[in-house]
Design brief:
There is one protein chain. The two termini are 15 Å apart. A hairpin with a 2-residue loop joins strand 4 and strand 5. By secondary structure, the chain is mainly β. The protein is built from no helices and 11 strands.
Length: 179
Amino acid sequence: MGVSCMCMEPALFAVKLTILATSVAARPNPGCQNNCGDVIIPYPFGTGGPISFYPTWMTLSKFPFSHTKNMFTAIGCDTYAYVEGSLGHTYSTGCLTFCNSVTDVINGSCSGIGCCQTAIPKGVRSYDISFDSDNQHSDVLSFNPCSYGFVVEDGAYNFSIHDLYNYNFIGKKFPIILD
């Protein structure tokens, strides 16, 4: 799972990919690659081919992201976030989230005030996350210096007001489901 970030103040960030999968008692074939960098991909999945990720780009060559079990999620109060890529043709989808004050935001609600979610297209194997902002967070900087975007298993992320101003959010890990 890659978390992407747009900050209006300097901050260091790292992208971590987490793939949660159920292990089975069977053993992989000898030489079966089961990791990508420091990410462990348990049997029966493995990689078997190139896999790469960048701060806002993630590619999984063998398995598409489940379009029925994952959601694209964006966090911010002056945020346009979208995910785009190619499925033989270019696609783009996303959501926007606004709020004027931290008092407008409701814990646990990801309906467009501080947090939004939308489905991802069927067959997606890679994506790029982009951000935009009306006022570069200038009106909300005191409680929301960054915007975040990530794909996550539907129901696995519960929005918290604290996520709007938590610089450590970039280090959080969330599950994604592959088809």
